[in-house]
Specification:
With 171 residues, this protein is of the alpha+beta class. It contains 7 helices and 4 strands; from the N terminus they run βαβαααααβαβ. A 4-stranded antiparallel beta sheet has the order 2-3-1-4.
């Protein structure tokens, strides 16, 4: 899945785009809208952005897994090279310490990432502050052009802001 970004100038345009996307068989769970004031989204029954879009959770988890896994690997190798109290350790110790480090790194960094605004959305902050609605739509790669054309054709007032490739936690 790839994430398409659109900026709708107002709630009416956002609602119309959502309706068009639903008619194009994009499930509502794949549509998220970020606005300055979410009360308008609730009044119009529009899908709100979730915590994964609003925060830096995903990039933080990715960095935490890498840093924690590397630290765990090094700790495991050190334990084999310098075994504590004459205990003989094998490859299992390296595997366990690597997995434990990756798990701890993911957990610790996710706690930080969830409290930090999404750095990938910095480019849209001014528009959102001025009242625009940022729409994030997850679609298969094969449908990107179709969905962009749909929005371009029916809603020329909306800005197509680009595509974020492969949005999964583990690319």
């Amino acid at each position: 899945m790839n994430r398409l970004y659109f900026l709708a100038p107002d709630v009416i345009c956002a609602k119309e785009i959502v309706n068009d996307l639903l008619l194009a068989r994009i499930e509502e769970r794949h549509i998220q809208i970020l606005a300055k004031d979410n009360s308008e989204l609730r009044e119009e029954n529009l899908p709100e952005a979730n915590l994964l879009l609003e925060s830096d959770f995903v990039p933080a988890v990715q960095k935490g897994i890498a840093a924690g896994g590397t630290t765990g690997l090094l700790a495991g190798l050190a334990a084999i090279a310098f075994p504590p109290a004459g205990i003989v350790l094998g490859g299992g110790a390296v595997l366990i310490s690597t997995l434990a480090g990756a798990g701890f790194g993911a957990w610790a960094s996710s706690m930080i990432g969830v409290s930090v605004p999404n750095t990938q959305l910095k480019a849209f902050e001014d528009s959102i502050e001025k009242g625009a609605f940022l729409m994030a739509v997850d679609v298969k790669k094969s449908r990107i052009d179709e969905i962009e054309d749909l929005v371009r054709k029916h809603h020329p007032e909306a800005n197509i802001e680009g595509v974020e490739p492969n949005k999964s936690v583990f690319p």
